[in-house]
Design brief:
Oligomer: single chain
Number of strands: 0
Number of helices: 18
Strand content: under 5%
Shape: globular
Structural class: mainly alpha
């Protein structure tokens, strides 16, 4: 084996050895950072993600995902160039946050319901924040201003949809997977779409074959395993950031980030927020909300939108761990994350003035959420808001399809 082939392994080994050495030099800092990471996982991520992990597993087993896939296929293929079953992933990804979109995409790939290019398109724009984290943790908890939720949500989710439309050109020369109704359903092609959707759900349920009790047990077990992986990565990156800061290595990142922020005329006081958000989304958003009062609010919100959309290396690691058994590539994903972050950053400035008159109305509809009370947050906010977000995304997908259809018909008349 040549040195050229071994050099990446040597580099990774040296990096791991360096991190281990720093953790031995700064044990107290590592412990505090780990405790902080565990708090973020337990207070925010566990109640926000675990129910949706279980629900998504059950919906796949019962066949509800295949039901939605058949219904949404005529809409998703012409607009986003992904199978209709991807519409369910889009809705669940937006409703429950990262990394649910990647988890569902990997499961669809396992069942050969998406190919590599379709999976890469899908995971690229369904990796987004959940409404509870964006509203409860960021707007209310970090910025102490519920009225910012509307601007952040419009910038984050709006740019994600725009990214999905842009990603339709990724791998455009590759053939698409066949529609669900054409794969293994007994209903003929002349049957109504509702008949074909129920038939697809029945076929999926029969193919799964597990009893409901066994399905629930396996869903809880796999979801617990995944949520512990998510928590472990959050704790790890919290510790890595802390030791890099204690060893003053983060100063190198600060110099580079300062140069980039000056290009965009953004206050360099937000450098720490960008650096934190590069590694871990929660720490970055918190740093943006807690930045100095002398910084214009629009810049702090724009940086928070960038951090939420970039998602941090912690989320990237979660996505990679979920996709490791597939042939989906990381380069399209990281490119899409960076593009999403830049678009969300720009969208805040575009939307800032037009949405100012509605900030008071938005704040009036948002309750005082205590994200540090996991059970209360789960039953009062996470599940109801998740269901609302899921339904809203389905409506948006239908509207996008209708807009696409109208534009296409108009273009035919002019040609």
């Amino acid at each position: 084996m040549t040195f050229k082939k071994l050099s990446p392994f040597y580099l990774i080994a040296l990096l791991i050895l360096g991190l281990m050495s720093l953790m031995l030099v700064f044990p107290a800092e590592v412990f505090r950072a780990s405790i902080r990471g565990v708090g973020i996982w337990w207070d925010v991520l566990f109640p926000a993600l675990f129910p949706f992990f279980v629900i998504s597993e059950l919906m796949l087993g019962v066949g509800i995902v295949h039901f939605f896939g058949t219904l949404l296929d005529p809409m998703m293929r012409p607009v986003f160039r992904i199978p209709g079953i991807g519409g369910f992933v889009v809705a669940m990804g937006f409703a429950s946050g990262y990394p649910v979109g990647a988890k569902l995409t990997a499961q669809l790939w396992d069942q050969k319901l998406v190919n590599r290019e379709e999976g890469e398109r899908l995971v690229s724009f369904t990796t987004s924040s959940d409404p509870i984290f964006l509203i409860g943790a960021v707007s209310v908890g970090f910025f102490h201003d519920a009225s910012l939720a509307g601007i952040l949500a419009a910038a984050h989710y709006g740019s994600a949809m725009l990214l999905g439309l842009m990603m339709r050109y990724h791998g455009r020369k590759q053939s698409a997977t066949p529609a669900l109704a054409a794969v293994a359903t007994s209903a003929g092609p002349a049957a109504s779409i509702w008949v074909r959707a129920f038939d697809a759900m029945h076929e999926a349920r029969m193919k799964d074959g597990r009893a409901l009790g066994e399905m629930l047990r396996m869903a809880v077990a796999s979801s617990l395993q995944l949520i512990f992986v998510v928590g472990g990565l959050v704790v790890f990156f919290s510790a890595v950031m802390e030791v890099l800061t204690s060893a003053h290595i983060m100063n190198i990142f600060y110099i580079g980030i300062n140069a980039v922020l000056q290009l965009f005329d953004v206050p360099v006081s937000l450098t720490q927020a960008v650096a934190n958000g590069f590694f871990e989304v929660t720490l970055g958003a918190k740093a943006a909300g807690g930045a100095g009062s002398q910084i214009p609010l629009v810049y702090k919100v724009a940086i928070a939108a960038f951090v939420l959309s970039w998602a941090g290396l912690s989320v990237h690691a979660q996505v990679v761990s979920l996709l490791h058994r597939t042939n989906l590539r990381y380069i399209p994903f990281i490119t899409a994350r960076l593009l999403h972050g830049l678009m969300a950053f720009a969208a805040v400035f575009v939307l800032w003035e037009p949405l100012q008159p509605y900030r008071g109305t938005v704040a009036a509809f948002i309750p005082a959420i205590d994200v540090e009370s996991p059970l209360t947050t789960l039953w009062r906010y996470s599940l109801p808001w998740g269901i609302t977000a899921f339904s809203s995304v389905i409506v948006v997908l239908i509207l996008l399809f209708l807009l696409h259809f109208v534009v296409k018909q108009c273009m035919k008349r002019f040609v």
